[in-house]
Design goal:
Length: 142
């Protein structure tokens, strides 16, 4: 009975996490945004030389194409697995958030390594040995 209860609770927790992630998804990219004023630091994250918005690239062919970089979010630092040659602009992202009044869920999971999965850079899963077993029961059986 406890195994069934454990599976049910795990499923509910997983669904709650998925719903939470859906709530903080980025807005659609086809949303019209007014062009930033010249010299404005509050516009979208832009490249220094071109003035065009920076697009973070996550495509890959091998694990060596992926690395952890700070892509930024509305809270500040946000490490993610991206292509080693991808440009990032965490300060620009933060400035855009402040200018538009957007907020973000703060905090992030620590990424120790990246891998190429189906052509996209992704964080490697935690090693199984990092999980701790349940402590032994302290109850005495008579």
């Amino acid at each position: 009975m406890s195994r069934l209860l454990s599976r049910c609770l795990s499923t509910i927790l997983l669904l709650a996490c998925l719903v939470s992630i859906g709530c903080v998804a980025a807005p659609p990219t086809d949303t019209a945004t007014p062009p930033p004023e010249t010299g404005s630091a509050s516009g979208p994250a832009t490249g220094q030389a071109t003035g065009k918005p920076i697009v973070v690239t996550t495509t890959c062919r091998t694990d060596a194409d992926c690395t952890v970089k700070d892509v930024g979010n509305c809270c500040g630092a946000f490490p993610a697995c991206v292509n080693v040659n991808s440009a990032t602009d965490p300060k620009g992202v933060l400035a855009q958030c402040q200018a538009s009044g957007m907020m973000s869920v703060c905090g992030f999971r620590e990424i120790s390594a990246c891998q190429c999965v189906a052509g996209q850079c992704a964080a490697k899963d935690a090693q199984a040995d990092t999980l701790r077993p349940a402590p032994p029961s302290t109850e005495t059986v008579h």
